[in-house]
Amino acid sequence: MRAANAVIGLWMLVSPFFWLHTRFQRLNAWVVGIVVVSAALAAGRGHRLGRTVNALLGAWLIISGLLPLGQRPSIVWNQVVCGFFLVLFATADSLRALRAQSGHP
Description:
Elements: H1 2-14, H2 23-44, H3 48-66, H4 73-101
Helix pairs in contact: 1-2, 1-4, 2-3, 3-4
């Protein structure tokens, strides 16, 4: 899952080069991408904070994608989908552990 988050972070870094972003969208994608890759690497080394950071950044991508800032629809979808998967992948291990503790297979 951490590798998937790193791939999403890399995608956020390069996506502004594939279609036109507003200044906010471009800066948002680059900052989020850098932090997501860094957090995924930290999580890979066993730091739980990395997963938390990626989950929060995923939520931020969803929220920032839905803000009425004159954003282009393709960018909105990119941010919302990437944000959803960041949250999903960042919380998957915790959800799996919680499920195991509750006795469910």
